[in-house]
Structure formats: C-alpha cells, structure tokens
C-alpha cells in the first residue's frame, strides 16, 4: 500500500491552483470537472509520478471550521520538503509569500511556516 493522493482544503480552487503552480512551482497533473467543483491535483516537478496533492474545495462547514481553527492555533495543514530552506525562504519572500515563522532550527531539521493565501498554513522543512 502507498499514498497516491493527499488533499488540502482551499477556499478558492482557481486561486489555489495559481498559487501552488506559479508561486510554489508545483505542476498541475489533473484538472477535471467534478460536479460544481473540479478534481485538481498537483505534483512535484521533480517527481511527476509521485504523490499527488488534491486542492479540495472547503465547501463543507466542517472543512471551513477545520481550516479556521488550525490557522488560529498556528498549525500547518501539511509539510513540504526542500533541499535548501534559506534559499527557498528567500525565493518565496521575493514572490510575496507571507511567513508566520522564518527558518528555525529544531534539532536535526530546519522549518519555516507560510500562509498559502487559500486558508492554510504550510510548513517547509529541510532535513
């Protein structure tokens, strides 16, 4: 068994697609109609056959509450690995990304947290 798709709730699928592709650099893998919304998945440009990230609409009240409470408590919804967190931090800052935590060493890893503009906090990590 392996993880093939994981999802995050987003407030606006088009806005999320633009942010995750244009700003973060992920590649759109699927974008198909699914009722009133779309099934939009992204992959890492370095592993286009790897795990897909689904941009799931937060239309359900529980999804909105989940997002709101995680952000209020400063909890990231997911984590992305990077090779050089300081270069990635600078690149994202230069692209207008707002960080809630700058790169911080924690044991053997360094992490930073940013706002994805779609209702989530995202953590990046360098191992």
Automatic annotation (TrEMBL):
SUPFAM superfamilies: Glyoxalase/Bleomycin resistance protein/Dihydroxybiphenyl dioxygenase. PROSITE patterns: VOC. It comes from the Bacteria. Residues 1-127 form the VOC domain. InterPro entries: Glyas_Bleomycin-R_OHBP_Dase, Glyas_Fos-R_dOase_dom, VOC_core. This is VOC family protein. It comes from Paenibacillus oralis.
